[in-house]
Amino acid sequence: MHSIGVQSWSKVHAFYANAGGFVLETPGFPKFPINATSIHYLCCQKRIDVPTITKENIWDRSKADLLAKCFAFAQAGWVILQICARAAQHLTITPLELFTAAFIIPSLATAYFWANKPQNVAEPTVITVDWTVAELLVAAGDAAKEPYVDTPMDFIEKPAWDGWKRLPSLLHFGGLAKRPLERIPNDYSPPPPTGTEATIVWVVSVVHALIHVLGWWFPFTTPIEAIVWRVSSLTLLIVMAIGGFVPVVSTQPWFDFSFSMLWIWVREAKKQTWVRRRLFSTVVDIAYVLYIIARIFILVKIFFAFRAMPEDVYISPEWTWIWPHAE
């Protein structure tokens, strides 16, 4: 294998690797995916050369190029512009439009941060070596003495997770029956975020929930429907503001409490006291339940609203008003 130098790697390569784009093939052992951390480790150990795949080759495999992503970005922006124009011209904005706008915000944030991520690459790049997994683990010493959970590279990929692991009942669920894993699962948790990353996610989540509250003054057909929307939207906001702050707090060195993420990934407290096991874990679990209930009520209310809409919802914005013109 020829080396093209570490400087040739980009965010595209890292995204490709962390999504399962590289598979390691060793003698006498099933192939398994390795992420960017493992590739860096193996390169530093001089066990492999830097993979020679180019950024252009990765994008060629992707099912969505930058043009498609930019087009989707423009479509989302147009919807937001339409809603702003309706608000400026005092035209009614429907619950469905608010609901759509709320999801566009995190979608735009995701599109920005994942701009370099290739999508739905079905055929991975195979890295073939002549050394065995046993040789690798022996050379790693005490760092690799614990049995692996997903792949033999857990000893280099998992320490950064700081106690995060998949819920034991889901270890073999959803096509994950074989070990080592044949692919990186779609719900695979990345390493714990930094405080800045967690804060960005938290802010975007709060803005997403806050948009629902803007429907407070929508002319609902009955007072009960108005109450349902207002209570549900406030519940979303409170859950996102308080429950969503827990992951931000969890990035701090002093944080040693148990809690779960979407009931899939769990983190146990190092000091097993009742408070450390239950405090944040209970808060997050209650937040999930309240969020699901509020979301269901909002979805039902959106469909109920169609039975009696104000007349001006059928009026399109007059775009000529934004251009200077004589009266």
Please specify the SSE layout and strand pairing.
Elements: H1 11-18, E1 22-25, E2 32-33, H2 36-44, H3 55-61, H4 66-88, H5 95-113, E3 125-128, H6 133-140, H7 154-157, E4 164-166, H8 195-213, H9 223-243, H10 245-250, E5 259-261, E6 265-267, H11 274-305
Parallel strand pairs: 1-3
Antiparallel strand pairs: 1-2, 4-6, 5-6
Helix pairs in contact: 4-5, 5-8, 8-9, 9-11
Listing every helix as H and every strand as E from the N terminus to the C terminus, the arrangement reads HEEHHHHEHHEHHHEEH
What class do helices, strands and sheet pairing give?
mainly alpha
The counted number of beta strands is 6
Helix content: 40-55%
Distance from N terminus to C terminus (CA atoms, Å) equals 73 Å
Largest sheet: 3 strands, mixed
Net shape: globular
Compute the gyration radius: what is it? 25 Å
Sheet with the most strands: spatial strand order: 2-1-3
- Strand percentage lies at 5-15%
Provide the low-confidence segments as ranges: 1-5
Count of helical regions: 11
What is the averaged pLDDT score? 82
Number of domains: 2
